[in-house]
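REQUEST FORM: STRUCTURE PREDICTION
Request ID: SP-0412
Submitted by: Lab K.M.
Chain count: 1
Length (residues): 201
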Amino acid sequence: MTDAKGSAFDFIERLKRQAPEILDLLTAETVPDFDKAFDAWLERAVMRLEQNKKNYEKLGEEGLTSALAGELRMPGLSVHQEENSNGHVDITIESTCSSPVFRKLGEAKIYDGPKYHIKGLVQLLDRYSTGRETRGLVLAYVRKKDIANLMKGIQKEMNSELPLDQQGETRIHALKWSFISSHKHSCGDVVDVAHIGCNLY
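STATUS: Completed
RESULT:
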């Protein structure tokens, strides 16, 4: 007869070795821990989109977000498109086996210059976010060459304009071609948003 306790322990040990970000997501108890674990999981999903970019050439923002949502889903993490949060937000990510529940909202744009990207940020913060969620996402699907400098251009524009009561300059993100901004939200708190570049050129 199989020892259930031993089997569970073995499973956790395998997770630690083969997919530590999954274990970290499932066991996160604080917002910083959840965001750090989610970053690693998101990076894997973005890389899979980039590796399959030829299969996604004909997709628009909604189709690309659907593909990303599929890559992000896992037991313990629900991912939905066009869910209602004061309007239909592009992507909603929610932990389903943690207490407290961690919720993340994201807006996605096919890159069309800094102002279009900032339009996604406005939608996310002014329309959809209640201020209760963890760090938000603005995803940039870049179908032009030189993603590194295009994302730097968005940063430069934001650092110059300080949109949506941005609190100082943007800062580096753990993910390549990505950065983080902080904004004074209407709830009174300062909220963070990760701006994620996805290279589909």
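NOTES: The beta strands are 77-84, 88-95, 103-110, 136-142, 171-172, 178-184, 190-199.
Reviewed by: T.R.
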